[in-house]
Design a protein that fits this description.
Strands 8, 9, 10, 11, 12, 13, 14 and 15 form an eight-stranded mixed beta sheet that branches. Strands 1, 2, 3, 4, 5, 6 and 7 form a seven-stranded mixed beta sheet that branches. The protein has a three-stranded antiparallel beta sheet with strand order 17-20-19. The protein folds into four domains: about 25-255, no CATH class; about 260-555, Glycerol-3-phosphate (1)-acyltransferase (3-Layer(aba) Sandwich); about 570-770, no CATH class; about 775-959, no CATH class. With about 950 residues, it is an alpha/beta fold. The radius of gyration is 32 Å and the shape is globular. It is built from 40 helices and 25 strands. About 50% of the residues lie in helices and about 10% in strands.
Length: about 950
């Protein structure tokens, strides 16, 4: 137990009437506990101030004089055992020490004026506090510069450094308005309130006050850096620095002053650059100035958000109920959030662009809720126009959402207006949040980024609208998504229902279920200027092609950073193990062991484990370490056993998807084919984290007698290229170095061993678990290649082909040609088609019909396509779990003995693929249409799902 901090007062307790209270009266003590008990300081901040007090002497600095603020910090400092100020200019706390002392002080004011007394605590080494501004008769003005000058003078004569610590309390969390009302003029605005308004704020917002402590300034170092400066000049300099810091701290709470939607609209329409663009549009469209301007104004009203603080707080209260009644709470990465708050201090020069992953409609409000509850700026959120219907649209606008149409095709003026609106938000310093994946993932796996909105924001830098940006990657994860029912309906052949009032009313059903935890994790901010420097660029490229490439690379870099903060949740571990093992049923003992293995692998790669998992492992550290000395297998079992309660909790969450059977005293878990595609969501949510290890295990396991490094590297490159549209890979090092790091990690956990220059599998079942986790993707690509043979002679329309391929995959799974029913995924099939286009084997064309653009495809290189088809079939057959039991095309290929392992090892047998790794598909601008929208997923038809259910019923009857 550490000794409590002690900062004894060196000057007499009665030295000055402004000194903070060490022992207030019982009445004031009860009052302060009631109103100030919710105020707190971060542990790191407390430690930093304590270290400063031990090293030197502290001078607290606040912007505007306020007895209430002073008393609030008094309470905080007492609670956290921090140095109390023994002097504060213009403050008298005698009445809070008792009636007698107040009377004594009343008669001694002439002898001891309240604005004197700074010398004594400084000379005794005590902490002091200086207010920089004060209000008098409705006018805000600076306090006397003599206080700071006296502090500077004292520093010149002292060997100990004086640290100036800026601090503030912001009572109303609502952002201030740009327009000053008469009340603001008479009683002060929220940042500089007079006594009456401060009291009203205190009574109304006491429980919502926000505390900020800024970065300290070493006054001794300032004097050393400027030896020629006078005391007056040093005082002016540090006064300005303090005001700037306090302003930045306030920015992290409420952001920049708010402008009304009308003011923003008028400023956009009156901007010179916009008028020039409007003139160019008029020349090409032939529209008049009045018509064009009227249409632009209409578009701005359609797009613009109308944030209202009271609505945001009402939504936050509703989400409080939702998150803690329907979910088991929200786990917030507080360390990462602090980095975001620190970044917000520089948001005037580099505005924040928040980029979360997108898994649920709740995502639109999760980040805002976290920011409100953690006293931070609520962002402006980009939302699809399909959510703008009444009343949801009105609610979202008031929460901070602005809306964009799905397509900009043929809408040049709308596109121009939308761009200028986004640039205006960023230029004003408002945080902007958008989902770079475009739509919600139906598979649980991160989607490839869409370049539209990111390119618009970067174009603003290129045009000089703003100089720099800070991108904040955010990972939102759920143990169980709310939309499970609608996702399953879509993934079993049903049409996606359009968003409507009826859908909002039906959403109330979620209150009848439990959905586990929500995880909100933040990656370190990406400063655009630093990112460009690291890649040898001075600024955003000006050329269109170079700009496109730079945008894509940044997009995938952001996506990789989002993936890096993926939380490994218990439900994801359960889903991954239950779907990736190769037995019909899995025992409870083996389930825990394999979960222990995946957890061990996650620890070795520094992946983020949920707090519940981390806490469970910490409580069992001694037992796990003891078992680890007995062998790797025992360590896996020990970790799985430590997580047994979390495993049971997850199985209960997923009980509709997992069948439980008791046989011979053992508990077995079975996943029927009809539930695999739904459970696949949970596996996919963490599969991106382990995909590189899975690729390595797949390559090594396919060589029964071991594989040499050159051959292994060639196969690993081929397989990673094949799956590049499914996963987000590292691109910050050469491929060989990345693979070497992965191999070393797998060797440490015993999965891979190296003997006589050959790589072998060390732990067969664990390696099979990893390699089998990729099988459904390989089978999906094989089905895609098989069905594309129909496009040898004539082009086929993209969406029609996807529907046909989904049906074919469902039939193949039903007939035993492939093992994985979840291979019938329209998302993966569409990715496969795009991969073929990139290889040059399939030609992509576009046909415009009205505002929509349809894409057609035709196989161009049939020979290369056949080679790939055969090689992929051999790759699937060589997986550790072997080919499917009821092969037709695959068995035909095997019966003909297409290649032996040795023959396939020759360099010319693997079809060449373009090695551009993370230079992904050319993403079209916002106006183009994807082959398949992430909000229009179609997979196995209802008839096929019924067939799966019949087949499962027969298997269970046999058991």
């Amino acid at each position: 137990i550490s000794k409590p901090r002690e900062f004894p007062m060196k000057s007499p307790a009665s030295a000055h009437q402004s000194a903070m209270l060490q022992e207030p009266t019982p009445f004031w003590s009860r009052l302060s506990d009631r109103f100030f008990k919710h105020l707190t300081l971060h542990d790191q901040t407390v430690d930093e101030i304590s270290e400063l007090a031990e090293t030197g002497q502290i001078v607290y600095v606040m912007r505007s004089r306020s007895v209430l603020d002073y008393l609030a910090f008094n309470q905080l400092f007492v609670r956290h055992e921090l140095p109390l100020a023994r002097f504060a200019n213009g403050v008298n706390l005698s009445i809070f020490r008792g009636f007698r002392e107040w009377i004594v002080n009343l008669f001694s004011r002439q002898m001891n004026p309240p604005d004197r007394g700074l010398d004594l605590p400084l000379s005794h080494g005590d902490a002091t506090l200086i207010f920089l501004r004060e209000r008098s008769w409705g006018i805000s003005k600076r306090t006397s510069p003599a206080y700071l000058q006296k502090v500077v003078f004292f520093q010149r004569t002292s060997d100990k450094p004086l640290f100036l610590v800026p601090q503030l309390i912001h009572w109303p969390p609502a952002p201030p308005s740009r327009q000053k009302s008469l009340i603001d003029i008479l009683f002060g605005d929220s940042g500089d309130a007079g006594r009456i308004r401060k009291l009203l704020h205190f009574l109304r917002y006491a429980k919502k006050a926000s505390v900020r402590i800024g970065n300290p300034i070493d006054l001794q170092q300032v004097i050393i850096d400027h030896p020629a400066w006078t005391d007056e000049r040093v005082a002016r300099h540090i006064g300005r620095l303090m005001l700037v810091q306090l302003g930045r701290e306030a920015m992290t709470i409420h952001g920049p002053p708010m402008k009304s939607p009308e003011q923003i609209r008028n400023e956009i329409l009156e901007r010179r650059s916009f008028k020039l663009e409007l003139e160019e549009y008029m020349k090409t469209s032939g529209e008049s100035l009045d018509a064009s301007r009227s249409k632009a104004s209409y578009y701005l009203r359609e797009i613009a958000s109308k944030p209202k603080y009271m609505v945001q707080m009402l939504i936050a209260r509703f989400l409080d109920s939702l998150f803690f009644r329907v979910f088991n709470g929200v786990e917030v990465d507080e360390v990462g959030l602090k980095k975001v708050k620190d970044a917000a201090k520089d948001s005037r020069d580099a505005p924040l662009i928040l980029i979360p992953s997108h898994k649920s409609h709740i995502d639109y409000l999760v980040v805002s809720w976290v920011f409100l509850r953690y006293e931070f700026i609520v962002p402006h959120i980009a939302a699809g126009a399909n959510l703008s219907f009444f009343p949801l649209g009105t609610l979202l606008r008031n929460a901070g959402a602005f809306f964009l149409r799905r397509s900009f095709v043929g809408q040049d003026l709308y596109k121009m207006v939308f761009k200028n609106y986004v640039w205006k938000l960023v230029r004003e310093g408002y945080p902007v949040e958008f989902f770079i994946e475009g739509g919600r993932t139906r598979t649980g796996k991160l989607l490839s980024p869409k370049m539209g909105l990111l390119s618009i924001i970067l174009e603003g830098v290129k045009r000089g609208e703003y100089k720099d940006l800070q991108f904040i990657p955010i990972n939102l994860s759920y143990e169980r998504v709310v939309e499970t029912a609608s996702y399953r309906k879509e993934l079993t052949g049903g049409e996606k229902e359009s968003e409507s009032v009826r859908g909002v009313l039906n959403a109330s059903k979620v209150f009848k279920s439990r959905y586990g935890r929500i995880y909100v994790d933040f990656e370190s901010p990406i400063l655009l200027s630093d990112y460009l420097k690291q890649r040898g660029l001075v600024s955003i490229p000006q050329g269109s092609e170079a700009f496109r490439v730079a945008t894509e690379r940044l997009a995938f870099h952001i996506m990789h950073r989002i993936q890096e903060v993926t939380v490994i949740a218990p439900s994801s571990l359960v889903g991954m193990v239950l779907l990736s093992h190769e037995r019909r049923a899995l025992s409870r003992t083996r389930l825990k062991s394999l979960i222990g293995f995946i957890t061990t692998l996650a620890l070795h790669r520094d992946a983020r484990l949920s707090k519940s998992i981390s806490n469970a492992l910490s409580r069992n550290t001694a037992r796990i370490e003891k078992k680890a000395r007995e062998g790797l297998g025992e360590a896996f079992i020990a970790r799985g056993e430590a997580l047994r309660f979390l495993i049971d909790e997850s199985l209960n969450l997923l009980k509709k998807l997992v069948d439980r059977v008791e046989r011979s005293g053992q508990t077995l878990y079975i996943i029927s084919d009809k539930h695999r595609i739904e459970l696949d969501y949970y596996r996919n949510s963490i599969l991106g984290v382990f995909a590189p290890e899975a690729i390595i295990c797949s390559v090594v396991a396919s060589h029964r007698r071991g594989v040499t490094w050159p051959e292994f590297l060639k196969k690993a490159r081929w397989l990673s290229e094949l799956l590049k549209l499914e996963f987000i890979y590292r691109n910050d090092a050469p491929f060989e170095d990345i693979v070497s790091d992965l191999l070393e990690r797998l060797k440490k956990v015993g999965v891979i061993v190296e003997e006589q220059g050959l790589l072998h599998i060390g732990l067969k079942e664990e390696a099979m678990l990893l390699s089998s986790s990729l099988r459904h993707f390989l089978e999906c690509y094989w089905v895609a290649a098989h069905t594309l043979k129909s496009a040898f002679e004539r082009p086929i329309e993209g969406k029609e082909w996807v529907k046909s391929a989904v049906e074919q995959a469902g039939l193949a799974a039903l007939q035993g040609e492939i093992r994985r029913a979840e291979a019938a995924s329209s998302v993966a099939l569409a990715n496969a088609l795009q991969w073929f286009v990139r290889q040059g084997w399939v030609k992509e064309d576009s046909i415009t019909e009205g505002r929509k653009r349809k894409k057609t495809y035709q196989v161009m290189d049939s020979e290369a396509f056949e080679d790939f088809f055969n090689t992929l079939a051999k790759t699937i057959a060589d997986l550790p779990d072997g080919p499917p039991p009821h092969l037709s095309p695959l068995k035909h290929l095997q019966d003909q003995k297409i290649e032996t392992d040795e023959h396939l090892n020759s360099s010319d047998e693997i079809p060449a693929v373009q090695d551009d790794r993370q230079d992904h598909l050319k993403e079209p601008a916002v106006e183009s249409e994807e082959i398949i929208s992430s909000d229009e997923t179609t997979t196995v038809s209802k008839d096929l799902m019924d067939a799966f259910e019949d087949q499962d019923d027969k298997v269970q009857a046999e058991q």
